[in-house]
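Amino Acid Chain and Its Fold in Token Form
===========================================
Structure side: the spatial fold of the chain, written down as a series of whole-number tokens.
Position: the record begins directly beneath this header, with no further notes in between.
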Amino acid sequence: MKNFIISYLISLLLLFNGEFVMGQENFSNTKVAFGLSGPEMLHAGVGQKLSKSSHIGLFGGIGPTMDGVWSSYNLEHRLYLGTKKWFFRQGYTYFPGGPDHAFTLTIGKDLKSKKVNGGWTIDGGLFYLLYHSDDSAIGPVLPALRLQYYVFLKK
């Protein structure tokens, strides 16, 4: 399990490959992000602007458990409101070794950095657990919180 975590962290470093020092170049609509959150845990992934008000993303995450590491896969959609800084996020998370599914609804804001074409994202709301093994086993509604750092890739 230790090798998995080390490989994950090295992959993150290679993914960014100097993208933090970007200058005044053109950027694509694709961004990479990593952060901490509930329910996705320590996560990294890629997002794509679909339009001025719509964004889709795919993330993989890991988190500690009593038995080692618990993984997660998340698909999200963001609907940006008015100023394009505030958004409403809808997410679906799959946990291969856990409660199976979570649905997330949050409201957040992009805090853009002046030095690079990126910044921080913070959002909060609720997530709802659903257990697949027993269709009647509907889990609790819990608080969701996410803090991410993101950068847009060069064209």
Notes: The chain is about 10% helix and 65% strand.
